[in-house]
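Tokens as discussed.
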């Protein structure tokens, strides 16, 4: 085991309903952190699991016609099944109904009681069964819970009380001595304000239901669900059962949670631990809420996203990327299909997918799939050095961002380098260099620099989109090392390495959001018939074209109806199952468009990227081989020859009218 260790937990998820995006998000954020710390060479323990006790679970089981145990087993399995679906690398999955957790919770209770911080009394007050919290009357909002908005219940029963009031000063002192104990700062400030307002003793047992952990030596009582649930973090670390393991892993480095349960983790939990004489977790990190239609995504409101639906349609890493990139950590974020599809096509298909395809395909084409040797002098030129400095900065910034749970910022920086690498390839034009034998060293240097940069990008993407990152490394012939970040540097892709097969990472999705919503879960395998006269592509003439009609001239007014514009090719790829069609993404100044062009027999896709062309801008859309084309690329097509696209000596700006 490495001398440096990292223990991270998710909240254990309450099983009153099935999992949704909110659970998935917390879990994959913790997964990214765990993966990153492993890549840094640290020993990692990553825990997730389910919270299965309490009155709410007991009532849900009754409603389902099941015993609490049967209900718990059923729903807990759905949360467990979510782990492999999300490609999560957790080391343990804990259930609070396990014997090891009963033992740990009862041991904590005994220690707190032995130290004089528990007493028995009668409790009367408002209780929210949805959030399993006691609500002072002064905090009610229109007679409802201030957290979830649901109705509260008045309960009056004998209860054990925890002397929370005794820890106000010690907790405030801990906050002052450890300013990073609760992050982000807005949550810390809320907790400090709550502490400064004074603490009341907390009811920590119930007698009105039985589905919970029995209080030691007083089985008429079951533990308050939060006393039970929070202890799970120590249970998995060996508390009360394996002292050696407990000393190795406790205290936890990070409790990762949603912002609605900060008080329980940042006030109740450290107070319980202080009362038992145990070390406190090092940090409580809370994230914001996923919103849908302006409201928090929640089971009780029914406005939830089921992760498997998006995974089935777009792939797992597309979902992982979207939630990492879209939510600035600590803030709320909105989930929408339009934003998801835009991120998929623009960031994943166009930027990352296009870069990996170009960099690997050109090494296959021009170097036989073998990594070339870069020329040291050529690698010292300004474009190579500028890109290299960006890569070196990225190697330092991404781990720091991940440590601070700033995944959105880390991915933003990675995508900046992806863009810079795409521009570097356009600048160096390897497809042009390949035509001159005396420029072989320039070709090999440019290909090496691009491939090596893609390697670094793939290594840095491993915590976020692990499947995509590892497939990219396989294409580069690189074996993913478990501690790759500990020695990551640019310029270390070994010349002579044999590349693997190039595969498409993210096929572009041309359907609109509305079309996707209408599509059935079962995708049809039928192939649409090929159109007889494709619109939007350049079609080679027939061997015996009809003779031109000199009288078939048009007036200037007719010609002016055709709107020709300058466009710049941003990406290009072959259309599946077609030998002559290419799918181009072009910048026409005011927007980006997809155009299908029949020039695959004349041009390799990567040779078109960065080229300036002329397009028919106001042509009606047409579908070719299932891809909607929005325009036509102009090209000359001599009889029996290959098409040649219309171009410029000095390219005008995209969107310029051609007359």
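Sequence:
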């Amino acid at each position: 085991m490495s001398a440096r260790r990292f223990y991270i937990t998710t909240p254990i998820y309450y099983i009153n309903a099935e999992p949704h995006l909110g659970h998935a998000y917390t879990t994959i954020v913790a997964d990214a952190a765990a993966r990153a710390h492993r890549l840094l060479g640290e020993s990692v323990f990553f825990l997730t699991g389910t919270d299965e006790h309490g009155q709410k679970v007991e009532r849900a089981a009754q409603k389902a016609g099941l015993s609490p145990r049967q209900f718990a087993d059923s729903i807990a399995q759905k949360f467990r099944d979510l782990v492999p679906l999300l490609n999560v690398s957790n080391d343990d999955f804990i259930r609070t109904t396990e014997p090891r957790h009963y033992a740990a919770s009862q041991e904590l209770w005994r220690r707190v009681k032995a130290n004089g911080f528990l007493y028995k009394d009668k409790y009367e007050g408002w209780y929210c069964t949805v959030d399993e919290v006691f609500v002072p009357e002064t905090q009610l909002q229109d007679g409802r819970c201030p957290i979830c908005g649901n109705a509260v219940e008045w309960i009056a029963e004998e209860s054990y009380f925890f002397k929370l009031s005794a820890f106000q000063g010690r907790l405030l002192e801990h906050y002052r001595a450890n300013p990073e104990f609760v992050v982000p700062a807005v949550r810390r400030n809320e907790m400090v304000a709550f502490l400064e307002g004074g603490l009341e003793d907390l009811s920590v047992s119930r007698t009105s239901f039985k589905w919970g952990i029995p209080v030691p030596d007083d089985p008429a009582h079951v533990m308050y669900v939060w006393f039970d649930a929070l202890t799970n973090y120590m249970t998995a670390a060996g508390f009360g059962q394996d002292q050696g393991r407990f000393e190795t892993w406790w205290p936890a480095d990070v409790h990762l949670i949603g912002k609605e349960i900060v008080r329980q983790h940042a006030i109740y939990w450290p107070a319980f631990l202080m009362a038992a004489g145990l070390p406190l977790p090092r940090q409580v990190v809370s994230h914001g809420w996923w919103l849908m239609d302006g409201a928090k995504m929640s089971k009780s409101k029914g406005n939830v996203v089921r992760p498997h639906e998006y995974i089935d349609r777009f792939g797992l890493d597309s979902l992982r990327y979207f939630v990492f990139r879209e939510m600035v950590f600590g803030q709320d974020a909105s989930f929408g299909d339009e934003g998801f599809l835009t991120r998929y096509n623009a960031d994943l298909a166009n930027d990352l997918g296009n870069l990996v395809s170009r960099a690997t395909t050109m090494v296959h084409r021009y170097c036989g799939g073998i990594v070339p040797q870069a020329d040291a002098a050529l690698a010292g030129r300004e474009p190579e050095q500028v890109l290299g400095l960006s890569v070196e900065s990225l190697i330092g910034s991404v781990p720091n961002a991940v440590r601070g749970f700033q995944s959105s910022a880390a991915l933003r920086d990675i995508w900046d380098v992806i863009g810079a690498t795409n521009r570097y390839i356009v600048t160096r034009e390897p497809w042009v260099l390949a035509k001159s034998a005396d420029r072989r060293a320039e070709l090999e240097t440019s290909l090496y620099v691009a491939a090596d940069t893609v390697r670094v990008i793939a290594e840095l993407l491993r915590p976020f989109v692990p499947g995509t990152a590892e497939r990219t490394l396989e294409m580069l012939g690189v074996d993913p090392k478990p501690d790759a970040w500990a020695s990551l540097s640019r310029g270390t892709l070994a010349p002579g390495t044999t590349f693997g097969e190039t595969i498409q990472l993210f096929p572009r999705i041309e359907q609109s959001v509305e079309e996707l919503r209408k599509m059935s879960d079962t995708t049809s395998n039928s192939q649409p018939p090929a159109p007889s006269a494709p619109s939007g592509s350049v079609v080679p003439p027939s061997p015996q074209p009809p003779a031109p009609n000199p009288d078939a001239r048009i007036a200037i007014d007719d010609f002016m109806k055709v709107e020709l514009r300058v466009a710049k090719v941003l990406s290009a790829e072959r259309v599946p199952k077609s030998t002559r069609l290419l799918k181009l993404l072009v910048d026409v100044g005011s927007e980006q468009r997809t155009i299908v062009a029949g020039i695959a027999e004349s041009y390799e896709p990567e040779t078109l990227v960065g080229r300036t062309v002329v397009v028919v801008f106001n042509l009606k859309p047409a579908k070719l081989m299932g891809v909607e084309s929005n325009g036509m690329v102009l090209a000359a097509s001599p009889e029996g020859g290959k098409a040649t696209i219309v171009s410029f000596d000095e390219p005008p700006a995209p969107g310029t009218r051609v007359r």
